[in-house]
Amino acid sequence: MSRARAEIVVELPLIRHNVRVLREHTGVEMMTVVKADGYGHGMVPAARAARDAGAAWLGVATIDEALGLREAGDTGRVLSWLGVPGEDYAAAISADVDVTAYSVAELREVAAAVGAAGRPARLQLKVDTGLSRGGAPLDAWEDLVAEAAAGQARGDWTVTGIWSHFACSDEPEHPANDAQEAAFRHALEVGERAGLRPEVRHLANSAAAILRPSSRFDLVRCGIASYGLDPAPGHTPDLGLLPAMSAVAELAMVKRIPAGAGVSYGHTWHAPHATTVGVVPVGYGDGVPRHASNHAEVLVGGRRRPVRGRVCMDQLVVDLDDDDVAAGARATLFGTGRLGEPTAQDWAEAAGTISYEIVTRIGGRFVRRYVDEGQE
């Protein structure tokens, strides 16, 4: 085939638009998070779009991701934050990537890597203020800060940042938010007493960046909102963010089925009357969530069509309700919503998950295509 049967279409102008909107709304420096292949949008194109829109920083989980950005030509500030014992910190230091330490053991690995890199590191410290995931526990924070200050005095590194991460920022009234912000402010005071004067202090992710001005400090880290998806459904004001990803396919087949016919594995849906169904040639092997079976919708022929029966590995079935639709017709699983199609948030609700998972996991045999200004 000369064309793809299923495409992930990423509109780069919309990423630029979203980053600009978020910068204007928050009024502080922006870190656009492009980990996990840019939340499924493509790490390098998303990063370039974010830089075009004024993102001073890019954020990634792993050093490999950071090095991928450098290999693609990015020369701006990049922070990585998820290391494991034996991590290649020397490569990150040589590539001018800011690395994150959670423990004294990690600091010692970074110090050892400085000699191999032949230059000081740029180092950030992460404190666990209540997420109970990455970051130094509060009872270990003073020791980490003291060791970091000593290493800075030796010339091993410059401590460029202190940061943490919210657990419940998508629930603005959750008491954990106040507790975490208070813990973070205390952690900053500990760092200041030790003589650390970090370039950036950052706590806010997308939801907090939008909803909690007191948590913005010097820098906000926006991931999902940069791609136009709502980080706190039901709480977020309409800022004009626009989803940048659409997932589309061509109907592989259209057929008439009689009343009572069972559809797809397990016959979890039976036609209450004779109808026409369409076969969409994507399934859970391509990241379409099976949990959305019998709940999600797909736009075909200008109307939303319900998914009937279970999503299969390679295909799913939609009810066309006897409308005049032929094989080869465009089926939009999700997109911007501007044409009435479902959004990734709609699919998330149908599958009982979050939009992050929908866009990050979609892939498989979909072909990714980018649309930019002046292109069709």
Automatic annotation (TrEMBL):
PTM-bearing positions, type N6-(pyridoxal phosphate)lysine: 35
The molecular function GO annotations come to: alanine racemase activity; pyridoxal phosphate binding
> Which InterPro entries did the record assign?
Ala_racemase, Ala_racemase/Decarboxylase_C, Ala_racemase_C, Ala_racemase_N, Ala_racemase_pyridoxalP-BS, PLP-binding_barrel
Reactions mediated catalytically = L-alanine = D-alanine
Matching entries from CDD domains are given as: PLPDE_III_AR
What pathway is this protein a component of? Answer: Amino-acid biosynthesis; D-alanine biosynthesis; D-alanine from L-alanine: step 1/1
Q: Which cofactor does it need?
A: pyridoxal 5'-phosphate
- Which source organism? Nocardioides euryhalodurans
> Per its record, how is this protein called by name?
Alanine racemase
Query: Catalytic residues per the record?
Result: 35, 265
Q: Which domain of life is it from?
A: Bacteria
Which residues does the annotation say bind substrate?
133, 313
Q: What is its EC number?
A: 5.1.1.1
- A Pfam family that this protein carries is Ala_racemase_N
* Role of this protein: Catalyzes the interconversion of L-alanine and D-alanine. May also act on other amino acids.
Please state what class of enzyme this protein is.
isomerase
What family is this protein classified in?
Belongs to the alanine racemase family.
What Gene3D superfamilies is this protein classified in?
A: Alanine racemase, Lyase, Ornithine Decarboxylase, Chain A, domain 1
Looking at the record, the residues that make up the Alanine racemase C-terminal domain are: 244-371
GO BP: any one term:
D-alanine biosynthetic process
Keywords on record: Isomerase, Pyridoxal phosphate
**What are the record's GO terms for cellular component?**
cytosol
